[in-house]
Structures are given as structure tokens and as C-alpha cells.
């Protein structure tokens, strides 16, 4: 399936990165059924992050090989929506059922109430999206679940929302969920006596193998928490958090979202423009002037687009202190009303002891609220869509307190980029003489909100400052370096043997990020702590890498030279366009690529080699050998057997056919449902009449059957699309490459998963960050040549795969993202693809090369394509010469 820019084709509710996170989770579940959690995770992690990351299962879940992975989504990224959508993926990819049981665990009562509202309330995005995905579903509290009946569990998807504390107790007899409950007796009819337990709610959950979502998972990481999960016998555990556990039980991060990705997909306001003044009156007056200016911009935005925005200010007051004159919430409100003549109904206090917000609907145009005053955090769950300005009266503040408030001004209203650039940023003002300390606190707040520190360093900018002050904010107070590798896998430090005091210091000054292949060192390190960190790694190579990292941490910061994007420049790359009459579209959306294909032309007969008849042959792929050399049943098979306890009807051809139709339907609507149903019916009929399968056998093997049939459909569609591509390539008159259709890269429109963190300086990159580039290997060497040695380069971009902001070309099966985009001094563009010698051949590579050369031909000498192999830079030089020659001809002409 081709990636369509700017949207998730299967689900328009979701952003592209949200679809990709869910797709990664689904692929993990499918891999788990075939190979177990370790192999499934490590295979996908290597594919996703480009490096080997070990899977670390919580000890309490090891015996049953319960899959446990984490989606790392920073503040403002829509974790709750992703969690709800994940239920359908579990039903389809893991359980093979229409209705399942989900236990949604949250850390606090406030978040529990917020989640319940989002799930239950019509008109809420989460609720409405689940109606589309799941059909009928029921959302319950723990009290409501204590009366849960099998008729409900069998006929709809059930979601129980609770705090971890409802289940987490060493003495389980003290909690109602573990006590015998006569209301639940009907759930145990027909269940073997050995599985009944004491007929408690936990026993009902255990028998149904719930899908467990652990929201804000970093707040749950204790041994007791994982022991609690093990008692529930989950079919899978999905952690959703901005800040994964890195120390106690390191999270298995399957998908990680960067600040750049959220910004490029219009989810958050960045950068944060910062100003600090020692005089509180000056700081407050400038903050209010900023708010007034934003209102003017908002009025212009509404006139242009119709979107209503009323910018708000969040004010962080000080705590009351005996004997000291502090800016308490009440005093700040008095200052606003009496000294600055703000209307009383435009100001509200929201603290732990006083909440004047009530049920105020901020988005209502009739609402007059403009200023919200708090201390450490706003009421959890309060939606503040128009917060743009943060004003802090506190000269110093904990990063946690700042994160609670800063996260509110980062959210982009309605997740849609504004035409007025001022409305795409956030603003922070502070009462302090030390702007660098304030900037550091804000950066710490961003890290607590789930952003990598390497990203956070670039997201705080001095408001209206001269270049000297901006350079001051960029002083190197931390350094991010690649994690060492051993045997092609990341080497992570073992901190378990360190004294408790040392570990506490490390938690403050060391940030590990296996999914980005990097670690960040910050602050001051004693010689003893430096030595302790080196010894925590096992190889001499790792110790040397740590030594070099400390050398860079202690080195003076280099002067920052603004990049083209920071100077307001843009980098436009023409797309391959298809034109017919007045219609001009990306060639990937051309009717020629749709392919006229029909399932009537696809064979429905599955041969012995594709779908073995013997059960033993089928099961050989579902057995594994444990560490003691004993053969054990695959956990997927064990799960199937347990779930069949609650199948009230015998297997039927109609039921299996319905399940396969739902599993194999095309979410983009490119496959006729009636045609699919007829094709699947023919496949089942062939297996029964010619191969001798019974419907019970086919139902038992339905996951394998789905996998084989999906492969048949994919191959057929690829063949048809390949024919469409041949038609496209053969009709160049309809294709063009010019200014009419471009991918425009600019500040805030460059998404990546991780930043380059190597010690070698790579010059001339269009953006201050270089996305998804490792610090060694052949692609790095190619980047180094382009950046530092290639003649005539104005600037270049590391083009990141599968981002809506990236440049791509269509292929018969997907989209092709050249590794590098290069703008020459004369304005010509080179798209360069690097292939190592071991992967440079094959049909896929030939197709990419051909489409790249077509793109160059149709550009009329304005663009060139370079296919680079085996560290031979001659193709780059030749592409540059072709462009220079074409440019000279245009000038002479």
C-alpha cells in the first residue's frame, strides 16, 4: 500500500505518524504469533531504528511470553486516540475475534475521569472513532464491571477504565476486584474447575485474556505493577507514555515520535519563544503585549480561514510562603484586575485548592476568559485549546512543574497549521535576570513532556534577542552521542550494581534512548561518576566512546551559524506530476497507477506448498525450543485454545468467511467487497472439496489461512500496479516536473525520528538538525562527501522516509524516498539514492532507478538523479555536471 502524503488513507481521523505507530504495533502482534515476542520485537526494532535493540520482558510476564511493548508519544501527540485505535488491531491481528475485553489502566483518578469522558461522550474524537472502528462497545468503571455478565462480553467490545491502584496491592484480599463475587458466577459456566479461581472480577479478566493498555506507563514501573499485570493473564500489554522507563524495567519502545514529526504534522506549536526580565512589571507587560498581538493575528486568521481562535495566557504564580512577599495566585489576579485593568471575568484561578474554571467551555466564542492562573499544574483533564503564552513569576521552577503547564501551550488548536506564522509558535515569559537558567528549565520541561533533549535544545529561542543572546541560549550544556554497538547490537550500560546515590545522580545527568541509538550526557560529572559510567559498559570500545563523549561535553561550545531554514529560506523540490486537461496531481495518484485489476483473474486455489494439509506440518512453525532444550507450544496457539472457551457457536463456513472478509478488506476501497467475498468463498470451497479440509480445521488455522490469502492478494495487486507503472513510464507526454507541484521544505516542516549525533561536523545542511542519519556506515560517508567535499553545493537535506514533509516518487508497490536532496549554487536540484553493494541490484532497485531517471528527464534540465553505489561518488559529480551544463544552456539561450 502506497503512503499518501498528509493523511492516513485507511483512517482520515489519524495523522500519518499515528497510523504508522498502529501499523508497527499490528506488525509486532503478527510477528509475535509466528515467532514470539523477542524475535518479533527485535526484527521490527532493527527495521525501524536501524540498529539492534534487545527485547526486555518484565520478569513477571516471561513465563507466558506476554508481548509487552511501548509507543512513545510526547505531550500533544494523541496517546489516548492511539490507545483506542489499538483495540481493533489486537482483535484482528492477535485474537481473531470481533469482540474483546480491554483493561485501560491510568495513574490517577483525574486521568481516569478524563479517559472515561473521552470514551463515552458523543462528539469526542476518541468515542466517535471507536464507533467507526469497533461498532458496538461498552465502557465501564470498576464498580460497573463488578456486575459484568457474559452476554455483554460476548456481544460487544468491553473497555474497563481503572487506576492501577484498583489492582495493585501485595495483600490482594483487601481489594474488591480479587474477592469472590456472586454476581459474576455466570461467567464461569463451562469453564474447567482448575481455571475458575474464586470467581472474582480478576478471574473473569484472567479467563478472557484482556488487552491491557497502560497509560502514562512511566508512573507504573515497579515490580508490584508487573506482578499485578501477570495476575490478569493479559494477551498483550501496550504502554503509552511520553517518557518510557529507562532504569527499573526498560520499556520496549516499538515506535517513537519526535518533536519534529509532531510539528510537521501540525500537532504542536514550536519553537517556544522565550523572554526573561528581572522586573516583573516589564515581564508581565511584554507578555500581555504578546497576547494582544496574537489576538490581532487570530482575527486575521479568522477573516482568511473562518477558524476561531482566542489566544490565552497561562500564568504560573508562586506558592504562599510565611514571612515572604510572594506572587500568589490571588495576588496575581489582583494585579491583573486592578493594576492592568483586565476585566474580572477574563481571569480565573486554577490551583489545588481553588478552581474557578468549573465547566467553562474555552472554545465557545461567548467565553471571555483570557488569563488562567495556576501554581504547579492545571487541573488534569482540563482542555485548553487556545493557550499560547506562558508567564512565570517564579525565578526558578522544577522541570516537572513547568512540564505540566508548558505542555498546555504546545498544543496546536484543532491540529491544523495556521496561515499566520505567529500562531504556529508558543511563547514564554519569566521573571528572572538569568535567561539561560530559565531556558534550561524550559528545556527540562520539554524533556519531561517526552521530547529528546537533543531536540529540546533547538526548541527554545530568545524572543526579540540579538544574535549574541541567541548564541548564549545555545551554549552546550549537554551532548548527545551514539550508543556503542557490540556484535551489531546496541550495548547498554548495566546500572544495577551502582550505589543508590550514584544511580540517582545518573537519572538526572544521563538520558538513554535505545530507539534513537543515542545517549545524552548533561550537567557536571565528577571523575568518579565518569569512571562508574565507563565501567557500566562491558566493552573497551564502549568505554572509549564514553570518554570521547565527556570530552565533547566539557569542550567550549562552537559559535552557531544560522542555517538556511533558520534564516527563513525554503527548499522546493519539484514532484513528478501527471497532467490530463486541467487535472494536475502527483504521479502516484495518477489513474494509470490504479491498475485495472480484478479478483476474477486471481487464482483462489491454495496448493500444498502454500497451505500444508498435515496438521503436524502446520504446527512445526508454531513450536519453539526453550532455553532447556524442551519443545514448548507457541503462546499464540495457547491463546487460541483459551479464547475458544468462550465461543458460543460452533465453527461455520459463514462465520469464517465473514472473519476473512473483515481481515482482508481494502480500507482504501480499491477492492470490490462483493468480488472479495466471492473469491474467498471459492478459496474455502477449493480447500474443502479438493484438499479435504473440514471447516473446523480451517477455523482452527484461520490466522495462517489469512496470512496466505493476504500474500496472494498482495502479489496480484502488485502485478496490476506494476502494469500501471509501465503504462505511466511509457506515456511521458502526461508527465512533468516543474514549479506547478513541489515539495516545499521550510522551518517546522522537516520531520525525523532521530537526529544525527556523530562527532563529525556535516556542513551546509538546510536545517539545523540532520534526521535519521547514523554516525557511521556507507550512507554517512555519502553524507560526509556531500556536506564537506562536493563542489558547488549550496545546501542539502537528509530526506527521511515515510514522512509527509519528505520528497518521494511513486513505485509499483510503495513510494521511493531518495536519501539526499542537494541544491546547487545555481539552483539546480539533485536527488541522490545511496545503495550498498549488497543491495544495489534487484527488480526493486531497477524500478527506483528508472523512475528517478524519468524524473530527471521531465525536469528539462532543472533536476538530476544520482544512483550512488559502493562509495563511488562519480555519479554525484556527473549529476552536478549535467545540471551545470543545462543551466549554462538556459542562460546562453
UniProtKB/TrEMBL annotation:
Q: Which residues form the signal peptide?
A: none
Q: Write down the SMART domains for this protein, in alphabetical order.
A: DEXDc (SM00487)
Q: Which GO terms describe its cellular component?
A: cytosol
Molecular function in Gene Ontology? ATP binding; DNA binding; hydrolase activity
Q: Which Pfam families match?
A: ResIII
Helicase ATP-binding domain location is 60-262
Which InterPro entries does the UniProt record give? Helicase/UvrB_N (IPR006935), Helicase_ATP-bd (IPR014001), Helicase_Restrict-Modif_Enz (IPR050742), P-loop_NTPase (IPR027417)
Q: What is this protein called?
A: Helicase ATP-binding domain-containing protein
Q: What organism does this protein naturally occur in?
A: Rhodanobacter lindaniclasticus
Amino acid at each position: 500500500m502506497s503512503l499518501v502524503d498528509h493523511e492516513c488513507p485507511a483512517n482520515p481521523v489519524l495523522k500519518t505518524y499515528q497510523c504508522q505507530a498502529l501499523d508497527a504495533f499490528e506488525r509486532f502482534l503478527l510477528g509475535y504469533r509466528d515467532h514470539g515476542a523477542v524475535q518479533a520485537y527485535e526484527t521490527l526494532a532493527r527495521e525501524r531504528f536501524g540498529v539492534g535493540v534487545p527485547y526486555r520482558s518484565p520478569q513477571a510476564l516471561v513465563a507466558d511470553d506476554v508481548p509487552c511493548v511501548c509507543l512513545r508519544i510526547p505531550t500533544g501527540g494523541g496517546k489516548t486516540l492511539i490507545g483506542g485505535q489499538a483495540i481493533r488491531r489486537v482483535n484482528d491481528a492477535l485474537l481473531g475475534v470481533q469482540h474483546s475485553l480491554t483493561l485501560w489502566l491510568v495513574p490517577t483518578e483525574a486521568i481516569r475521569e478524563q479517559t472515561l469522558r473521552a470514551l463515552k461522550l458523543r462528539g469526542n474524537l476518541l468515542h466517535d472513532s471507536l464507533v467507526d472502528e469497533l461498532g458496538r462497545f461498552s465502557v465501564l468503571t470498576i464498580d460497573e464491571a463488578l456486575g459484568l455478565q457474559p452476554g455483554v462480553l460476548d456481544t460487544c467490545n468491553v473497555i474497563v477504565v481503572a487506576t492501577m491502584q484498583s489492582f495493585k496491592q501485595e495483600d490482594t484480599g483487601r481489594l474488591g476486584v480479587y474477592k469472590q463475587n456472586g454476581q459474576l458466577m455466570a461467567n464461569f459456566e463451562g469453564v474447567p474447575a482448575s481455571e475458575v479461581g474464586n470467581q472474582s472480577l480478576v478471574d473473569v479478566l484472567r479467563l478472557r485474556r484482556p488487552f491491557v493498555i497502560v497509560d502514562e506507563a512511566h508512573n507504573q514501573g515497579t515490580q508490584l505493577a508487573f506482578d499485578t499485570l501477570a495476575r490478569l493473564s493479559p494477551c498483550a500489554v501496550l504502554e503509552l507514555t511520553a517518557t518510557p522507563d529507562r532504569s527499573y524495567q526498560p520499556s520496549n519502545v516499538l515506535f517513537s515520535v519526535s518533536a519534529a514529526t509532531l510539528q510537521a504534522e501540525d500537532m504542536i506549536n514550536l519553537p517556544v519563544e522565550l523572554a526573561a526580565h528581572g522586573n516583573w512589571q516589564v515581564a508581565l507587560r511584554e507578555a500581555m503585549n504578546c497576547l494582544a498581538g496574537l489576538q490581532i493575528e487570530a482575527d486575521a486568521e479568522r477573516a482568511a480561514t473562518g477558524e476561531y481562535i482566542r489566544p490565552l495566557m497561562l500564568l504560573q504564580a508562586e506558592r504562599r510562603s510565611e514571612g515572604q512577599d510572594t506572587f500568589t495566585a490571588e495576588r496575581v489576579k489582583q494585579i491583573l484586575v486592578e493594576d492592568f485593568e483586565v476585566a474580572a471575568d477574563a481571569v480565573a484561578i486554577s490551583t489545588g485548592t481553588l478552581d474557578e474554571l468549573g465547566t467553562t467551555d474555552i472554545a465557545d466564542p461567548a467565553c471571555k476568559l483570557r488569563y488562567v492562573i495556576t501554581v504547579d499544574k492545571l487541573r488534569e483533564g482540563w482542555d485548553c485549546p487556545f493557550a499560547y503564552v506562558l508567564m512565570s513569576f517564579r525565578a526558578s521552577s522544577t522541570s516537572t512543574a513547568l512540564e505540566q503547564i508548558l505542555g498546555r501551550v504546545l498544543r496546536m488548536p484543532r491540529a491544523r497549521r495556521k496561515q499566520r506564522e505567529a500562531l504556529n509558535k508558543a511563547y514564554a515569559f519569566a521573571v528572572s535576570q538569568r535567561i539561560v537558567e530559565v531556558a534550561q528549565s524550559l528545556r527540562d520541561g520539554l524533556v519531561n513532556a517526552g521530547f529528546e533533549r537533543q531536540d529540546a535544545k533547538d526548541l527554545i529561542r530568545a524572543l526579540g534577542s540579538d544574535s549574541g543572546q541567541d548564541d548564549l541560549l545555545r551554549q552546550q550544556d549537554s551532548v548527545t552521542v551514539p550508543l556503542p554497538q557490540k556484535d551489531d547490537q546496541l550495548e547498554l550500560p548495566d546500572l544495577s550494581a551502582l550505589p543508590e546515590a550514584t544511580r540517582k545522580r545518573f537519572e538526572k545527568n544521563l538520558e538513554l534512548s535505545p530507539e534513537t541509538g543515542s545517549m545524552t550526557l548533561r550537567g557536571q560529572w565528577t571523575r568518579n561518576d565518569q569512571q562508574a559510567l565507563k565501567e557500566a559498559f562491558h566493552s573497551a570500545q564502549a568505554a572509549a566512546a564514553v570518554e570521547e563523549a565527556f570530552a565533547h561535553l566539557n569542550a567550549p561550545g562552537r559559535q552557531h551559524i544560522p542555517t538556511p531554514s533558520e534564516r527563513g529560506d525554503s527548499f522546493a523540490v519539484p514532484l513528478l506530476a501527471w497532467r490530463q486537461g486541467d487535472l494536475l496531481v502527483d504521479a502516484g495518484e495518477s489513474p494509470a497507477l490504479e491498475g485495472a485489476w480484478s479478483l476474477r483473474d486471481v487464482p483462489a486455489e491454495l496448493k500444498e506448498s502454500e497451505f500444508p494439509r498435515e496438521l503436524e506440518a502446520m504446527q512445526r512453525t508454531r513450536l519453539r525450543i526453550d532455553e532447556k532444550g524442551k519443545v514448548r507450544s507457541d503462546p499464540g496457539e495457547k491463546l487460541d485454545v483459551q479464547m475458544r472457551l468462550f465461543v458460543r457457536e460452533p465453527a461455520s463456513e459463514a462465520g469464517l468467511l465473514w472473519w476473512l472478509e473483515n481481515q482482508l478488506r481494502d480500507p482504501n476501497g480499491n477492492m470490490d467487497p462483493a468480488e472479495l467475498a466471492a473469491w474467498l468463498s471459492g478459496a474455502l470451497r477449493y480447500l474443502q472439496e479438493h484438499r479435504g479440509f473440514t471447516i473446523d480445521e480451517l477455523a482452527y488455522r484461520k490466522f495462517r489461512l489469512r496470512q496466505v490469502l493476504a500474500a496472494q492478494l498482495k502479489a496480484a495487486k502488485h502485478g496490476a500496479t506494476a502494469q500501471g507503472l509501465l503504462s505511466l513510464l511509457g506515456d511521458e507526454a502526461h508527465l512533468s516536473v516543474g514549479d506547478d507541484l513541489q515539495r516545499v521544505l521550510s522551518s517546522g516542516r522537516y520531520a525525523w525520528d532521530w537526529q544525527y549525533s556523530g562527532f563529525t561536523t556535516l556542513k551546509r545542511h538546510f536545517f539545523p538538525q540532520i534526521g535519521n542519519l547514523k554516525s557511521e556506515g556507507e550512507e554517512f560517508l555519502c553524507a560526509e562527501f556531500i556536506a564537506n567535499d562536493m563542489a558547488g553545493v549550496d545546501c542539502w537535506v537528509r530526506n527521511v522516509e515515510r514522512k509527509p514533509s519528505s520528497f518521494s516518487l511513486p513505485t509499483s508497490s510503495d513510494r521511493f524516498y531518495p536519501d539526499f536532496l542537494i541544491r546547487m549554487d545555481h539552483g539546480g536540484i539533485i536527488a541522490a539514492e545511496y545503495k550498498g553493494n549488497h543491495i544495489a541490484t534487484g527488480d526493486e532497485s531497477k524500478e527506483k532507478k528508472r523512475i528517478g531517471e524519468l524524473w530527471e528527464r521531465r525536469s528539462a534540465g532543472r533536476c538530476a538523479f544520482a544512483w550512488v553505489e559502493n562509495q563511488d561518488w562519480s555519479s554525484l559529480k556527473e549529476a552536478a555536471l549535467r545540471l551545470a551544463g543545462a543551466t549554462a544552456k538556459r542562460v546562453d539561450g
